[in-house]
């Protein structure tokens, strides 16, 4: 009986988070939707969901598809942001609370760190 209640909660939260639309426009929306749906899959761990959702929401399309032909600095900036977010932010989400506000803030700070790093090393 408890599982049915949890699944209802997840479906409702998914609708609220996505705004009843199929499109996802911000990191916060993407991460919340991804994390909630990942955690309801059998045999998915907290660590797996956090890592998969960071990757999916930082790189909305896998590198090598739409990123082909981009400036190497732009692509490297995405990899820097993913590495920073994985190491600095992956412990924020909990199994029943993705804490999207804190994740968004943490990942945003990675953007700033990576931008400073790449802009200061550019010729």
From TrEMBL:
Signal peptide extent: 1-22
Keywords attached to this entry: Signal
Protein name in UniProt: Thionin-like protein 2
């Amino acid at each position: 009986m408890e599982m049915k209640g949890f699944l209802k909660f997840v479906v409702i939260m998914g609708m609220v988070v996505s705004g009843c639309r199929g499109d996802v426009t911000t990191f916060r929306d993407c991460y919340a939707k991804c994390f909630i749906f990942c955690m309801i899959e059998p045999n998915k761990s907290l660590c797996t969901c956090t890592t998969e959702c960071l990757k999916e929401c930082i790189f909305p399309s896998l590198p090598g598809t739409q990123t082909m032909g981009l400036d190497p600095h732009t692509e490297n900036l995405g990899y820097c942001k993913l590495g920073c977010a994985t190491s600095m932010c992956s412990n924020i989400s909990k199994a029943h609370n993705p804490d999207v506000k804190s994740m968004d803030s943490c990942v945003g700070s990675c953007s700033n760190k990576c931008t400073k790093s790449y802009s200061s090393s550019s010729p």
